[in-house]
Amino acid sequence: ANMLCRLASTSSSQRYAQSRLFSQSLTMRHNKVFNSAEEAVADISDNSQILVGGFGLCGIPENLITALSKKGSKNLTVVSNNCGVDGFGLGVLLGKKQIKKMVASYVGENAEFERQYLQGELEVELTPQGTLAEKLRAGGAGIPAFYTATGVGTYIEHGGMPIKYGPDGKVEIESKPRPTAVFDGRKYVLEESIKGDFALIKAHKADKKGNLVFHSTARNFNPPAATAAKITIAEVEEIVEDGEIDADAIHLPGIFVDRVIKGASYEKRIEKLTLRQPENKDEGKPKSEGQIKRERIAKRAAKEFKDGMYCNLGIGIPTLASNFIPEGIKIELQSENGLLGMGPYPEAGKQDPDLINAGKETVTTIPGSAIFSSSDSFAIIRGGHVDITILGAMQVSQFGDLANFMIPGKIVKGPGGAIDLTASGSKVIVTMEHVAKGDKHKILESCNLPLTGAHV
Predict the structure, then answer these.
(1) What's the whole-number mean pLDDT along residues 57-77?
(2) 3-state SS string for 249-307
(3) What is the helix (H) or strand (E) element at residue 234, kind and residue range?
(4) Which residues of 196-226 are buried (b: 16+ CB within 10 A; e: fewer)?
(5) 83: closest CA among 62, 113, 47?
(6) What's the CA angle centered on 123, arms 119 and 124, to 5 degrees?
(7) 396 and 98 in contact (C-beta within 8 Å)?
(8) N or C: less crowded end of the chain, CB within 10 Å?
(9) What is the pLDDT of residues 133-152, one digit of tens each?
């Protein structure tokens, strides 16, 4: 009897302790609003894996990044589409050597990012943009891995991509081959999902329960990053009372958000301010030989447009093709960062730093446009819903292989969304001049640069 009493007593005390802990946990969840960015990141320790929202400089958590920079946490693994620019955004952490490893799709014009990688100061895992978005989405959904056609026949499948160089320029760590499987006669590679210790994200508005509303293309990678972390910290421009955001208007439910801060200030730097030019601006000016060549290529590519097509156009000559759409033909432009129905460049003074295209240029929307997250954008692409993709390349082979994102050991731009697009099943058109500097041929029997797509 005494033993039964002791067991009952112990069981009762344990239940009380669990009940108290649960009550405290609920109280903590109800107090999600923190006083400052510094307070919100105070427990981010060295060696943490951080998931960071944003695309270029659009939709980045400026205040949280600044606070983490001040805190000085080191040896961080950062998962983000890119790493800001020199001295701004994640570029601040990079410049202070707080980042040990970047998992990203794009290096772009960040010279310090490229330098640290090529000189062996930084580990870099180059990941196709759509695969990166899906790795985050799957991680947040409890899916440990998934198969995708993205990267079949490239370094993604075969491995061998440098992750870390040594001081002597030799490769110290390289990517490993992925397992593959065949479904319905097509080969796919297995990708493991990503989870993080913390996520730093940016939204436009939050209520005190952590429900979030994003603004325009600043949504991008923020929703999938938010779902995949143990602790998600959101910075917003406005915090409202519960109930002030209509339930149907919430983009991300508060169950995914642990901490909310109101950003003290925002620079919202525009990476590529691009404005609409008067139609007669260059009238009468002679065109250079290069301009004439590029326009000729763009005009030929534009002949492939058919009425009602959904199209994805890369930077440069591909975008130029939209100026030569045949009369009577209407197409819809899709941008990888989460925009369908892309309009023209804005007029001076009407640019919005939260509204950009995949080339980081300021753009506008048109009647009927839609905006969504990066993971939804690449669901559109991988699902075969885009009819035609036009992109540039460094090399094209006789087999339909193309390479367009790096020269190992010399130049690294990153694949961005190109590997996803070339594997999507859409019609792929490469627009490029046929020779590079020094009259080096770009159309070859076989490519000798890392492939973006094989047998496209």
Answers:
(1) 98
(2) HCCECHHHCCEEEECCCCCCCCCECCCCCCCCCCCCCCCCHHHHHHHHHHHHHHCCCCC
(3) strand 229-236
(4) bbbbbbbbbbbbbbbbbbbbbbbbbbbbbbb
(5) 113
(6) 105
(7) no
(8) N
(9) 999 999 999 999 999 999 99
Cα separation, 305 vs 295, in Å, equals 16
Which residue from 44, 64, 55, 88 is spatially nearest to 262, judged by alpha carbons? 64
Nearest to 194 by CA among 134, 149, 273: 134
For 366, phi then psi, to 5°, come to -130, 165
Q: Which of 62, 271, 336, 361 is catalytic?
A: 336
DSSP states of 73-128 as a string? --SEEEE-S---BTTBTHHHHHHTT-EEEEEES--TT-HHHHHHHHTTSSEEEE--
Q: Per the structure block, which two tokens stand in for 425?
A: 């099943």
Token code pair at residue 42: 């105070």
Can you read off the two tokens belonging to residue 98?
A: 């707080």
Which pLDDT tens digit goes with each residue over 255-310? 999 999 999 999 999 999 999 988 766 666 888 988 999 999 999 999 999 999 99
Q: How many CA within 13 A on the CB side of residue 238? A: 10
To the query of whether residue 271 is one of the catalytic residues in this protein, the response is no
How many angstroms separate the CA atoms of 211 and 208, rounded? 7
Please name which of 257, 278, 196, 265 lies closest in space to residue 237, comparing C-alpha atoms: 265
25 has a pLDDT exceeding 50: no
The answer to whether the Cα torsion of 221, 224, 227, 230 is positive or negative is negative
pLDDT at 277: 87
CB 112 within 8 Å of CB 95 = yes
